């Protein structure tokens, strides 16, 4: 278990048992692609793989981080908490969390020693950054006797990533890592920041197929999509209070189609219809209609492909190959797109041999095999 590894690593680096250990999971974006920054709805799944954090108080005002993978150590004074170079982001994530915990009222009269361990798959897009933020938040809060709610933990993790590490993100990653529950999906209203836990059928599991493809201009493409969404919302808000795409229906969009370019219209249509798909998926889960839920996942990918245009040939091929397999409810790109991974929601009867068949079909077309990762819906952040 990853928490045992974190304890052993701590003993190796610091010569003693840690006082507190906490874990937090990675996550899968289930459905709701690019809806978060448009104030919309999204669903995510906490997976049954985690990052564990081990901490203990020091007798001085130093903070010491040890990298469990490389053995590198970084030490600094509590009174000089500022972002370190990007190469030390493994320190910045927990350091930023500590800074914002202090701002939230945590009292610390001494520093701490810190290390972590992970069994998350590398490069699978399961948000290891949110996992270490949530695990750090829980561990440091317990270490210093500071009570914190789940919503506060999510806000602090996001603030650390946005304002300390410098990576823009919504609340999906931290929210799912914190609120996740075994055999469940986390539904988030990104406008009100309200959470709801929806049970999955007990025989469900997930496969991630990482294409390993990443577009060279991905940052610019993200920015362009964000700008197009904002432009659409501005046009739709003309003559009234400025609102987000979440607040509009297709009839509103079609009424002002002539005022926006084709690309802007397509981006807005994707977001508006994707929000509707998330709400439909929610209802399917309430009644256990897995067949309809799977169709929604496939429809989400098709919209990403044709309207939001953030898919690519590699992701499309993976989805098409999965459609041909038995025991697959649905599949779609998961995350920002322009490369990355496809998520497949499958029954317990889906086999490794089927995953290999998909992999071989992909290799025949692209000359390389995707990285495959099986997982289940697991629990969110917690202390030990």
Automatic annotation (TrEMBL):
EC number: 2.7.1.6
Domain (GHMP kinase N-terminal) ranges: 92-181
Main enzyme class: transferase
Spans traversing the lipid bilayer: none
Domain Galactokinase N-terminal: 8-57
Domain GHMP kinase C-terminal: 283-362
Family matches, as NCBIfam families: gal_kin
Name of the protein in question: Galactokinase
Origin organism lineage: Bacteria, Pseudomonadati, Verrucomicrobiota, Opitutia, Opitutales
